[in-house]
Specification:
209 residues; alpha/beta; DHBP synthase; six-stranded mixed beta sheet; four-stranded mixed beta sheet; 19% strand; globular
């Protein structure tokens, strides 16, 4: 089996890592990178072919959405058609961090990302290095976990390689993730938020604004 190209970034992003990631993403490739929860599969979420690769790598069904990680909150308007006051409150309190919010998607957002639902999951990760990487990669990356659908989310590169082999183009090794839980997911498409998945952030007691 071909060995997947790996770059260690435990001590931070290097110029080599940044340049190589930008090259792979621009070419429509898929990288594995550390987030503030688990390792993720990163591709250009504006590129049909690249997003298709992510689905193929994961063995994911077409009706299952894929979330997007953003560099900062200023990028939100490019992906969402409406932001409720409840969403604003959650973002003020928990972003950057392991909270994924589900918004109504702008019409131009790839249908593959929304799974045909018309909504898009978005998160700004709490890990500074991850946000820096996303910024260099074009301010947005797919953020689905780096595993086959139905398998456990990986906390280190060894788990990623065992699961995905050489299906990805580049792996960024940021060491072992300290995360024990995935991101919390909250639907904010209306003024009354709805918890879709409990996770690293407890929002159960603050969903009234």
């Amino acid at each position: 089996m071909k060995v997947t190209e790996t770059i260690k970034i435990e001590k931070g992003l290097t110029e080599e890592a940044i340049a190589r990631c930008a090259e792979v993403i621009k070419a429509g490739g898929v990288i594995v990178y550390p987030t503030d929860t688990y390792y993720g599969l990163g591709a250009d979420p504006r590129n049909h072919r690249a997003v298709g690769k992510v689905f193929d790598i994961k063995g994911r069904k077409a009706d299952q959405p894929i979330l997007v990680l953003l560099h900062d909150r200023k990028e939100l308007a490019a992906w969402t058609s409406a932001v409720s006051s409840a969403a604003e409150g959650l973002m003020d309190r928990f972003w950057p961090g392991p909270l994924t919010l589900v918004f109504k998607a702008r019409p131009e957002v790839l249908s593959e990302l929304t799974g045909g639902t018309g909504t898009i999951g978005i998160r700004i990760p709490g890990r500074e290095m991850t946000r820096a990487l996303i910024g260099w990669a074009g301010n947005a990356l797919t953020g689905t976990s780096a595993n086959r659908s139905g398998s456990s989310s990986p906390r280190n590169v060894d788990e990623v390689i065992r699961e995905l082999g050489d299906r990805v183009d580049l792996v960024l090794d940021g060491g072992v993730s300290s995360a024990d839980l995935p991101s919390t997911i909250v639907d904010v498409t209306s003024e009354q938020p709805r918890i879709i998945r409990s996770g690293a952030v407890d929002v159960s007691g603050i969903l009234t604004f």
